[in-house]
Amino acid sequence: MAISDPLGMIARSLTTVRFPADNYKQCLAEVLKILEEHKVKTVVLGLPKHMNGDIGVRGQISQKFAKMLEEHDITVHLWDERLTTVSAERILIQGNVSRKKRKKVIDQMAAVQILQSYLDRQNGGF
User: Fold this and answer.
1) pTM of this prediction?
2) Domains, the chain
3) Which end of the chain is more exposed for a tag (fewer CB within 10 A), N or C?
């Protein structure tokens, strides 16, 4: 997870939510707890797409999770996340981050990139 500053200009890493495979209710509970703690009412959720733009199984899971969040009065913006993990890994490699440490932070780095690209678009960038 990533969060922005109060002005919605800069994204920063927050945490990684871990949950048992396919236990989206547990994931939802953890995410809602974090959102409440930080008084967040709007979420940018990565939408995995195939390179041709099609939405596969993982994308459908994201869409279902977005609906679960919306049932709790959270506004959700689904955001194309293609190549964010690749880009995040490239940045970490350029920063000389070890393979072991990259594995631990890659998801957070990708979350920051997803949120930052959304913020940049909202603020007139791109």
Assistant:
1) 0.85
2) 2-122 (3.30.420.140)
3) C
In this structure, are residues 47 and 76 in contact, taking their beta carbons and an 8 Å threshold?
no
Q: Rounded CA gap, 100 and 28, in Å?
A: 28
| pLDDT tens-digit map of 31-68 | 999 999 999 999 999 999 888 889 999 999 999 999 99
Length of the chain: 126
Q: What is the mean pLDDT of the chain?
A: 91
How far apart (Å, rounded) are the C-alpha atoms in residues 55 and 22?
Answer: 18
Residues 91-98: contacts with CB under 8 Å, at least 24 apart: none
Tens of pLDDT, residue by residue over 10-25, are: 999 999 898 888 889 9
User: What tokens appear for 21 in the block?
Assistant: 């495979």
Question: Cα–Cα distance between 19 and 95 in angstroms, integer?
Answer: 29
Residue 109: CB partners within 8 Å, gap ≥ 6? Answer: 13, 88, 89, 91, 92
Distance from C-alpha of 17 to C-alpha of 33, rounded to nearest angstrom: 11
Structure tokens at 46: 């990565």
